Amino acid sequence: MKKMKNIWLTVGIILTLLIGSVNCAYAQYILAGQHSESNYYYHIIPDATRTGPYDHGQPRPPAIYEIDINGDYYYEFYLCAYGYWSNGGSSAWITINSHNKHNYQIAVGKIDTCFRNNYYNLYFMAKSFRAMDTIGNNLFWTHVAPRYSNDTSLLLTYRSYSIDSGVCFPDDFDNDSLGNYIGVRITSPTDTVYGWIKVTNIDFLTFTIQEFAFGKKITGMDEYSNGIEIYPIPTINTVTIETPLADHGLAVYNQYGIEIMKRTSIARKAQIDLTGWASGVYFFKFFRDKSVVVKKIVKN
Question: What is the DSSP code (8-state) at residue 235?
Answer without folding.
Answer: B
